[in-house]
Amino acid sequence: MGTKLKAYLRLLGAHHILCMNRRNARYIAPGNPRQHYRLVDEKIKTKTLAAEAGVPCPETYGVVTYYGEIKRILTRITTTYNTFVIKPNRGAAGRGVLVLERDKDGKWRKPSGVRMRAMDLHFHVTSILSGLYSLSELPDQTLIEQRIFPHVFFKDIACGGTPDVRIILFRTVPVMAMMRLPTTRSDGRANLHQGAVGLGIAIATGISSAAVCHNGHITCHPDTGANLLGLQVPDWPAALAAARRLAAHIPLNYIGVDLMLDAQHGPMMIEANARPGLNIQVANNTGLRPRLEFLQTLFARGATADQAWAELYPRIAADTL
């Protein structure tokens, strides 16, 4: 084993980083049966579960399943609403998501100002149905839903798009959270790989504690210069409660729940993930391993999820895990 690799492994161990192989072997393989992946890989199914759990999510305006439905459904949507979101049912990483609003001239445009013709909308829906953006590249459905308007909290720390919150839960217990803030470089997308800011959020308090952009630690938003640290996320208890309720309705032990904080309605569920990424550890400047291993010990002793959360919460707050 090379010297550099040994040093890298020592660094990972020192920061208690959960690596992909360990995540897959210890948490996903034994706790996330593959037959249930569709419940989170397909947004329509996840929204149904959210409704059952009493978790708010954007209103569905329409679902396009067949090419012959495109004109009829788009005509109804565009004559009824002044803004909406088009997204693939089985999409990931924000691919294929199109936010539209009617401008003062009655034309459709993206929030960036780029105008979209009726034929552009039709082509986009066609591309989604063909599977261009789906996880498996198989034929997909198009979901058209309510647009979320960000809470005023995000006025100076997000550019050109809607930020989201990711909460990772193990057996319905929240273990780590981050906020993904769009930037000019990410073209308004809340995607870390495309240049969005990853803002680490203290799971116990909802206060931002660290921030990264392209894996480099920062303290201010790269576009606005606004401070990113020590900010209190609004409605944090409600966000945690919503994530926990949804997790309890999904037969997967290890999941990520993504929420957006709407200006009027508070936390709203956007999607869930059976294989949430590990960059959340970079955003928080701390590893997942101690928290997950602590919970495993508690569950092995027969603790309930509520008891485990009650044990975990003060330890994280005191920074002892």
Descriptive key words:
single chain; 321 residues; alpha+beta; D-amino Acid Aminotransferase, Chain A, domain 1; 2 domains; seven-stranded antiparallel beta sheet; six-stranded antiparallel beta sheet
What are the SSEs and their pairings?
Layout: H1 3-14, H2 20-31, H3 38-41, H4 43-53, E1 60-64, H5 70-80, E2 83-88, E3 98-102, E4 108-109, E5 115-116, H6 118-129, E6 142-145, E7 164-170, E8 173-181, E9 197-201, E10 208-213, E11 216-217, H7 236-248, E12 254-262, E13 266-273, H8 280-284, H9 289-300, H10 305-317
Antiparallel strand pairs: 1-6, 2-3, 2-6, 3-4, 4-5, 7-8, 7-12, 8-9, 9-10, 10-11, 12-13
Quick summary of this structure?
This protein is α+β, with helices and mostly antiparallel strands.
- β-sheet strand percentage: 15-25%
| End-to-end distance | 30 Å
Number of H/I helices: 10
Strand order of the largest sheet: 11-10-9-8-7-12-13
Query: How is the biggest beta sheet arranged?
Result: 7 strands, antiparallel
What name goes with the CATH superfamily of the largest domain?
Answer: ATP-grasp fold, B domain
Tertiary shape:
globular
Oligomer: single chain
Mean pLDDT: 91
CATH topology tier name of the largest domain: D-amino Acid Aminotransferase, Chain A, domain 1
- How would you classify the helix and strand content by structural class? alpha+beta
CATH class of the largest domain: Alpha Beta
Helical content stands at: 25-40%
Unreliable sequence segments: 4-9
CATH architecture of the largest domain: 2-Layer Sandwich
Rg to the nearest angstrom? 20 Å
Order of helices and strands: HHHHEHEEEEHEEEEEEHEEHHH
